[in-house]
Amino acid sequence: MKSPEYKHTNHLIHESSPYLLQHAHNPVNWYPWGKEALDKARKENKMIIVSIGYAACHWCHVMEHESFDDEKVATFMNDNFVSIKVDREERPDIDQVYMHAVQLITGSGGWPLNCIALPDGRPVYGVTYLPQAQWVDMLTQVLRFVKQNPDKAQEQAEALTQGVRSGEMLYGNTGKADFTIGDLDRIFGAWKSDIDYTNGGHKGAPKFPLPVGYQFLLHYHHLTRNADALEAITTTLHKMADGGIYDQIGGGFARYSTDPYWKVPHFEKMLYDNAQLVSLYAAAYQLTKDPRYKLIVRETLDFIQREMTSNEGGFYSSYDADSEGEEGKFYVWTKDELQRALGNRADVIIDYYSVTEKGNWEGGRNILFRSASDKEIADTYKITENELAERVLEAKEILLKERARRVRPGLDDKILTSWNALMLKAYIDAYRVFNNKQYLDIALKNAYLIDAEIKTLDCRLHRNYKNGTVSINAFLDDYAFTIEAFISLYQATFDERWVQEARQLTAYAIDHFYDKEREMFYYTSDIDPALIARKIETTDNVIPAANSQMAKNLFVLGQYFYNDDYIRKSERMLSNIKQNALTGGAYYANWDILMAWLAGGSYEVAIVGKEFEAKRKEFDTQYLPDVFLSGGKNEGTVSLLENKLIEGQTTIYICKNKVCTYPVTEVKEALAQILQQRLVLGKK
Predict the structure, then answer these.
(1) In this structure, are residues 370 and 242 in contact, taking their beta carbons and an 8 Å threshold?
(2) Residues 6 or more apart in contact with residue 585 via CB below 8 angstroms
(3) Which of 26, 188, 245, 311 lies at a CB distance of 3.0 to 4.6 Å from 68, suitable for a disulfide?
């Protein structure tokens, strides 16, 4: 197994994950998760180290260098354990189980996640990052405890396993589903105290974007005209766009800010963050028409197309925080570097991006962020704001070329289905808001890749695609976000292929993931090998919960196809977690969007006739989060469109609960009908 270039090569050498391959030449005899490693642990009666991380994880790299590259540490691990490395992005199912166990043990979690388990996989202890001496000491103590107290070790493993399993208990609601605007007011009232109205985001640090939270607040403001909700959104979007969390030169957002001001990022860039933030900024532009939001969308998608898109049209997973062994080195600048690159026009850019001689960050270097307005900078240099914008654009082009000469952070080039679906939807959202045909072309290319290479003939998805090969059976989020993206693609094109595929994928998910007793979806398929617990994901986080997205999908498809069973399932799922959602703030925001559809009403708009595309685009100039578009030149096969065609004209129908108002031919008339219905609802 040894490679001539390396002293050590382990079982990870055959994997495709960049994270696992990073560890393929450690002296630790790593195995990937699978039958070989688990059988070895049982056969040799050795405990298991389940070590979980991801390619862009800074502290994962630190622990590798300190411990897993060390010969003595590796020998100790090899002699006493079967060591399994897991890429949490490829195998979130494993991560969910052992993260829950470590949280039960320590009260917190994070990555690298290291869980010590009995030979049967049940956890007995776990930690996150530890320096080398503490790592070896911890392993030694766990070994001693298990050998000296086998009965207690079994009891602890059983208690932890039951704790992980009981974490799936839900607040069941056996009564009739009931959702009101008052519920939405209560949600915002509980959430409001945690909002930072000065700096945006939630109070304190670190700050994570949590885009779905602001999507709900946009929707809530749309229904109630609550000024505080809109202020929370606009403050957050402006502060993030000004901050170091946004790559001011190359576009795109880092994963989170380490401070309360969005200034100092943890420099890794994740596909899922950027996808959801594109959708959020596009929606905010639809509502406010703020040109800054349009610029953020354009620059972020330019970054994705330039640096995170494969030739086949797939989207890569992430960029590392580190380059040349230093976090953030690729992104930061000294004042001298900027002066050399920009010459006599450097001063205005230095002030524009808050650069100082001593540096605004570590080691005399500067994170580029904005602390003054365009007007303040323009007035200082006695130029117009338009002239300032031209200088900034010119400087960005120069600095982007200059930065390209540096050693880039590591790229995780695996193509994950769920994350690709999020970015697919982002491109669709950007196309619908800004009417840029290139965005639609990119979206279609990605959709065809998923359809042709990642989806099987029986509508089963794979999780991972790389170098023309698929691997790992897909999880619920892969289905949930692909279904959402295909529904969005239908709304953007009225090509029924996509909504029909969304319905087929939904049927597959119900067959293989749905628990009829609890009326929720498991995260793993019934054809997957069982872990110690089968998890049900309900909490929205940096990525919305797979169950909240499936509930939304069922609701929308139920409207399109007049499928009452889908709508009933959707309502029951929301009922199951309603009590959590009322007080859970951003962590139930995707559920809250569904609640807004049910409480405030949703509208199915059918556009039928030869001018359908122009009418659809006219609707897309408005922020209409509760409107589901359908249509085409003819009636097609979507139930909502039946008997809607009137020869010789393009007709628009506003429908609600299978009942449609009188047809009109102008979008402004249709919007007036929606407004009238909202006014009637508001009086009830």
Answers:
(1) yes
(2) 187, 190, 191, 194, 213
(3) 26
Judge whether 593 and 552 are in contact, CB under 8 Å: yes
The span from the CA of 557 to the CA of 510, in Å, is 13
Question: For residue range 61-113, what is the model confidence (pLDDT) as tens digits?
Answer: 999 999 999 999 999 999 999 999 999 999 999 999 999 999 999 988 899 99
Residues 252/203, Cβ–Cβ less than 8 Å: no
Residue 103 has which token pair? 């949280």
Which residue is listed with tokens 């009829």? 516
- Residues of the chain with pLDDT > 90: what percent? 89
**Does residue 188 have a pLDDT over 50?**
yes
Q: Is 157 exposed, middle or buried (0-12, 13-18, 19+ CB in 10 A)?
A: buried
Residue the block writes with tokens 């914008």: 389
Count the neighbouring beta carbons within 10 Å of the beta carbon of residue 15: 18
- The position carrying tokens 């800054």 is 292
Dihedral class, residue 313 (left if φ above 0, else alpha if ψ from -120 to 50, else beta): left
Nearest Cα neighbor of 525 from 467, 460, 430 is: 460
Cα 201 from Cα 198, distance rounded (Å): 9
CB neighbour list of residue 642: distance below 8 Å, 6 or more residues apart: 635
Indicate the helix (H) or strand (E) that contains 608: strand 603-608
Residue 539 and residue 555: Cα distance in Å, rounded? 19
Distance CA 442, CA 132 (A): 46
Do residues 609 and 666 lie in contact, with contact meaning Cβ atoms separated by under 8 Å? Answer: no
Q: pLDDT above 70 covers what percent of the chain?
A: 97
Angle at 465 between CA 462 and CA 468, to 5 degrees: 120
Show the DSSP H helices in 7-90 as ranges: 18-22, 35-44, 58-63, 71-80
CB 164 within 8 A of CB 536: no
Q: Is the peptide bond before 206 cis (omega within 30 degrees of 0)?
A: yes
Find the length of the chain. Answer: 684
C-alpha–C-alpha distance, residues 397 and 307, integer Å: 15
Longest CA span, the chain? 86
What's at 552, amino acid-wise? K
Burial class of residue 20, CB neighbours in 10 A (0-12, 13-18, 19+): buried
As a whole number of angstroms, the distance between CA 114 and CA 129 comes to 8
Task: Note the helical H segments in 346-495.
Answer: 346-352, 374-380, 385-403, 417-434, 437-449, 476-493
Among 321, 81, 212, smallest CA distance to 543 is for 212
Instruction: Specify whether the CB–CB gap between 218 and 282 falls below 8 A.
Output: no
- The sign of the CA dihedral 565, 187, 185, 579 is positive
Is the bond leading into 119 cis (omega within 30 degrees of zero)? no
Would you state the pLDDT for residue 168? Answer: 62
Question: 339 Cβ partners below 8 Å, 6+ apart?
Answer: 346, 350
Picking from 132, 34, 138, 14, the residue whose alpha carbon sits closest to that of residue 86 is 34
- Whether this prediction's pTM lies above 0.85 is answered by yes
- Measuring CA to CA, how many Å separate 292 from each of 12, 251, 295, 296? 45, 13, 5, 6
Identity of the amino acid at 101: A
Q: How far apart are the first and last CA of the chain?
A: 73
> Strand 269-270 to strand 256-257: parallel, antiparallel, or no bridges (unpaired)?
unpaired
